[in-house]
Amino acid sequence: MSTPLSDRRASTEPPCLGLPGFVEPVSAFDWDRLPATAAAQRVCAERCPRDRFRACATAALAAGTLIGDEAPSVADGVVMAGIVCRGDTITRRRLQAVLADDVDPRVRPDRCVSCQRPMTTRRRKRPGYVVHESNGRCGACKRAEQRAGAAA
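RE: above sequence
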């Protein structure tokens, strides 16, 4: 039994295809604050499969490259991998962080990826749990990582 065309298209096409908010409109200078852009970022976070999400981040690292450029340029004026791309160094760092992390940036893990202690949120503090900071790490591990990076 064959699957309908709409089901096959849904499984092979990215969830962002044809939706508003993924491309900077010509007339909006603050498009990163528009509701459509925030919705586009949510689509990336909630509906994009992990492998496609990482492929999108990889493509965004070179999507701004023009013919004749010697070095690859980061995407500009689009939302890719859930990041508002502006073609600058900050965008490059955010995309590289998505690719460098072994943790899914869209889902907070139950345990710290460094010390393996159970984590909770700042709002719901529980005894025996550490507070989640970022990138799947607790606050103590995140600060230790920052100190080690500053010392190097």
